[in-house]
Amino acid sequence: MQITRFLCVSYIITFIIIGTLIVLLGRSKKNRPFFLISNVNKIFYVFTRLHFFIILLLNNIIRQIINNLFLF
After folding, report:
1. 24-38: per-residue pLDDT in tens?
2. Average pLDDT score over residue span 20-26
């Protein structure tokens, strides 16, 4: 159960971080709410490459959050 909660929380955190980056970078270019489709494809390509490293970087933080939230 802890492994599935860890994966869910890690995916949620990484999607929130990358979503905010996409929105901020898209707004910085000519006040567009989102990127063009080619830039979105590049971002998803980079995201699939870097997702493992993002989980490794957030591993200790997410473990501490789960230990604080889900321990009864």
Report:
1. 665 555 555 454 556
2. 66
Q: Considering only CA atoms, which of 14, 9, 17, 15 is closest in space to residue 67?
A: 9
5 CA to centre of own chain: 15
The domain ranges of the chain are 2-70
pLDDT in tens, 1-12: 566 777 777 777
DSSP 35: -
Measured CA to CA in angstroms, residue 47 lies from 2, 30, 32, 66 at distances of 25, 24, 21, 24
The C-alpha atoms of residue 45 and residue 61 are separated, in whole angstroms, by 25
Q: Is 39 exposed, middle or buried (0-12, 13-18, 19+ CB in 10 A)?
A: middle
